[in-house]
TrEMBL record:
Bias kind Low complexity: ranges: 29-51
Lineage, highest ranks first: Bacteria, Bacillati, Cyanobacteriota, Cyanophyceae, Nostocales
Region: Disordered, residue numbers: 1-83
Biased composition (Basic and acidic residues): 64-83
Natural source organism: Fischerella thermalis JSC-11
Stated name of the protein: DUF2996 domain-containing protein
One Pfam family named in its UniProt record: DUF2996
Transmembrane parts of this sequence: none
């Protein structure tokens, strides 16, 4: 007959009827971990401290306040128009070359043109004194024209005179009806005036 092994002899402790056995079954007597005091109840849930909020960057903060953030790169300023250049620079570097080209396209190949300050070459106009002039001649030096700038400003008063083989006799207003003078308009106006004299190649 097999002898029954005594739990005490085998080194095992027999479960006691008085000792509660842990189970996964919830009980109504267990304290609410959220409501219990963590100092007295080890089952109390530990609260986690929320991480501090990051401060908004200055640009984002301004945008939130209705302010537009500064542009990353400033817009490049447009270069000034040629008409806004200093008077002498405009005439010599822009107007004279453009006029020379326009006259050459009309078949005139011997235009001599300069920019000088001299008296108005018309009898009875000596009181005007000196002023800046665009002076040109062609057709073997027979045809002459002068464009006058008494105000030293392309937007100011302008006058024109021409002659063929003799001194000019009249001084004409030039582009007086234009609100703003441009490079193209100065070239076009003089070409029209020379064409009116039937001095250009197509006449």
């Amino acid at each position: 007959m097999t002898e029954q092994t005594n739990h005490n002899e085998a080194g095992e402790v027999a479960p006691s009827a008085d000792s509660p056995e842990a189970t996964d079954i919830p009980t109504s007597n267990a304290p609410d971990p959220k409501a219990a005091n963590p100092d007295t109840n080890p089952n109390a849930a530990k609260t986690t401290t929320a991480p501090p909020k990051r401060e908004k960057p200055a640009a984002a903060a301004k945008a939130a306040d209705g302010e537009k953030p500064a542009a990353k790169a400033a817009k490049k300023e447009k270069p000034p128009a040629v008409e806004d250049k200093p008077f002498s620079e405009f005439i010599q570097q822009y107007y004279l070359p453009a006029l020379q080209k326009a006259v050459a396209q009309e078949g005139v190949k011997d235009l001599q043109i300069s920019f000088v300050k001299q008296p108005v070459p018309i009898k009875g106009m000596e009181q005007l004194g000196e002023c800046w002039q665009v002076v040109g001649n062609f057709a073997d030096g027979v045809r002459h024209f002068n464009l006058y700038f008494p105000d030293e400003d392309i937007q100011g008063k302008k006058a024109f005179s021409c002659n063929e083989g003799k001194r000019p006799s009249t001084l004409e207003s030039f582009l007086i009806d234009e609100r703003k003078t441009t490079l193209d308009l100065l070239v076009y106006g003089l070409m029209q005036r020379l064409n009116g004299q039937k001095w250009l190649g197509r006449n």
